[in-house]
């Protein structure tokens, strides 16, 4: 008799500027996939380990506005290395679905494009921090910067949100450039649509890109 078939792990990341609605979609999609019987590990980057959460608080604290851009880059990379080794790789090895609220594309967009530290430099630094790990699918929820600001009601929660509009435009354009360069991995979704419509668009995208693993998800939604 054959034993149970082991399903491979799957790594899905969600990206977008602050206020795009990605965290809501991370929670929704994770629950839908769990409803099919797959084990899902949800993480956030930076964060999800003790050390990374400490550094996350430092990075987002508006009182730390004097952090040098290169220091900021290395702090994000350190968090990612910790997250990959302690959470993501072990979960993938167990055949689980990992859903990450941000991953290496955020560093490329925010520090490479937004801080203008150099796209190729940040791309290589990301490769070192992740030991080459890349999401199977990345879902980029795209919205205009002004709409993102309006959704937050003008509230500035953290240090990066406090940056000016030009910075956030560079970040948004950076994400879109990443998607243009890697269309097989990155899918761009219209974040201006109602929340349910965005969720359905995500599920349709997953059905096309990973039909063997997630076909049942679509059927059950």
In short:
Helix content is 55%, strand content 12%. It is built from nine helices and five strands; from the N terminus they run βαβααβααβααβαα.
Described by the principal axes of the CA atoms, the overall outline is globular
Helix content: 40-55%
Question: Uncertain regions: pLDDT < 50 for 5+ in a row?
Answer: 1-6, 217-221
Strand order of the largest sheet: 2-3-1-4-5
Strand content: 5-15%
Number of strands: 5
H/E series? EHEHHEHHEHHEHH
Tell me, rounded to a whole number, the average pLDDT: 90
Number of helices: 9
What is the end-to-end distance? 33 Å
Taking all Cα atoms into account, the compactness measure Rg is: 17 Å
Tell me about the largest β-sheet: 5 strands, parallel
Computed structural class: alpha/beta
Can you characterise this structure?
A five-stranded parallel β-sheet has the order 2-3-1-4-5, sandwiched between helices. With 221 residues, it is α/β, with parallel strands linked by helices. It is 55% helix and 12% strand. The chain is globular.
List descriptors.
221 residues, alpha/beta, 9 helices, 5 strands, globular, disordered N terminus
Task: Lay out the secondary structure.
Blueprint: E1 10-15, H1 22-34, E2 40-44, H2 50-60, H3 69-93, E3 97-101, H4 104-114, H5 119-130, E4 137-142, H6 145-151, H7 165-181, E5 186-190, H8 195-209, H9 211-220
Parallel strand pairs: 1-3, 1-4, 2-3, 4-5
């Amino acid at each position: 008799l054959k034993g149970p078939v082991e399903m491979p792990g799957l790594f899905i990341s969600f990206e977008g500027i602050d206020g795009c609605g990605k965290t809501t979609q991370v929670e929704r999609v994770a629950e839908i996939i769990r409803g099919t019987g797959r084990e899902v590990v949800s993480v956030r980057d930076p964060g999800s380990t003790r050390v990374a959460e400490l550094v996350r608080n430092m990075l987002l604290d508006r009182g730390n506005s004097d952090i040098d851009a290169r220091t900021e880059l290395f702090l994000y990379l350190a968090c990612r290395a910790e997250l990959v080794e302690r959470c993501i790789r072990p979960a993938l090895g167990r055949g689980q679905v990992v859903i990450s609220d941000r991953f290496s594309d955020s560093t490329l967009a925010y520090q490479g494009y937004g801080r203008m530290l150099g796209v190729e430099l940040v791309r290589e630094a990301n490769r070192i921090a992740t030991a080459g790990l890349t999401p199977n699918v990345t879902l980029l929820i795209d919205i205009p910067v002004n709409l993102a600001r309006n959704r937050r009601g003008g509230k500035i929660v953290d240090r990066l949100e406090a940056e000016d509009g030009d910075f956030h435009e560079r970040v948004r354009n950076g994400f879109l450039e990443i998607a243009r360069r890697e269309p097989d991995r990155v899918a761009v979704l219209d974040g201006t649509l109602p929340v349910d419509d965005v969720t359905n668009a995500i599920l349709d995208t997953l059905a096309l890109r990973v039909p063997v693993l997630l076909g049942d998800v679509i059927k059950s939604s």
